[in-house]
Amino acid sequence: MSDIWTPAKIGAVETVNRLAMAPMTRSRAQPDGTPGPLVARYYAQRAGLGLIIAEGTQPSADGQGYLATPGIYTAAHVQGWRHVTSAVHAAGSRIFIQLMHVGRTSHPDNTPHHRQPVAPSAVAPDDRIFTATGMQSIPEPRALTTDEVRQTVEDFRNAARHAIEAGADGVEIHGANGYLVQQFFAPNANLRTDAYGGSIENRARFAIEIARAVAEEIGADRTGIRLSPGATLGGLKEGPEGPALYRHLVAGLNRLGLAYVHLMHLGNEPLLADIRALWDQALIVNRPGRTLEDVGSDVRSGLAEMESYGQFVLSTPDFVERLKSGSAMNQPDRASYYGGGAEGYIDYPTLSEAVGA
């Protein structure tokens, strides 16, 4: 039986423990999408975890939705990420960069080209988004043509290649949380009549094609994907066919031999059991709201090879050390989650710093 302190093999990567840092948008990139000067320090501070999964990173200008999020599709982006990956490796951890195309969850004011958002179909999410001039309604997106869907797959391939050039150990495809890949899953966001809409098989096709392209480019053993079955973020409704779609999807992804599936688990236990049965590689489980007392339970039970944590790690750079000693974690400052500088980003104290203060 494994516990969270035993090493793990996640695809091509060996980790010193079975704890992962979940990807979290922090909006500290430079205006051109290059990781800012504090980013390397932020991730290196948290390198006690076996695997760092870096924040959502756009694979193209169309993929950006929020202010000051990083990209991985230009030479400047690659150079900026090299500082980050080098710092994490020097601190003893491994790092995957999450590739996130937000689809319709965007606004022209937040992108470098100021164009209309793109999505599976021209359906707005009935939501608002923060921009430099304050909160604004998200506009109706433009439906991608079939050729543009295929080009977006190539954008992910290109971004994955750039991530490896930047020193990342692998990439995680963001197929969760209401963004473009999940938008293709949801019948209320995907009204397409081509090969990417309608049936379960068609709505899962985009995700599988991205995974195949990325695996071809950098190796399946350096490719992961994050999923959030049943999540309604961004106004998505996967409907009664949702669980069947995920069973079909995971079976298809399993045939590609990817390094891992990273599951944001929202409570459908029968579906979680089915996904585990269908999946032969590593499973990383994130349970929103998991208490410190329950840390390690999914690894101990054999359900997961790793567990991922977000807010605990955001606020506590020495999360691993405090977990081992049973010490209290820092309280996160929600006001500084997004944007800004060092405050609420790299200034959370370690336990020794807090005691000595």
From TrEMBL:
- Recorded GO MF terms: FMN binding; oxidoreductase activity, acting on the CH-CH group of donors, NAD or NADP as acceptor
Task: Tell me which InterPro entries the record gives.
Answer: Aldolase_TIM, OxRdtase_FMN_N, Oye-like
Q: Which cofactor does it need?
A: FMN
Q: Which residues form the NADH:flavin oxidoreductase/NADH oxidase N-terminal domain?
A: 4-328
**One term under GO cellular component:** cytosol
Q: Which UniProt keywords apply?
A: Oxidoreductase
Q: Which Pfam families match?
A: Oxidored_FMN
- Would the keyword Cell wall biogenesis/degradation turn up in this protein's UniProt record? no
| Family listed | Belongs to the NADH:flavin oxidoreductase/NADH oxidase family.
PANTHER family xref list: NADH OXIDOREDUCTASE-RELATED, NADPH DEHYDROGENASE 2-RELATED
| Protein name, entry field | NADH:flavin oxidoreductase / NADH oxidase family protein
Protein source organism? Paracoccus alcaliphilus
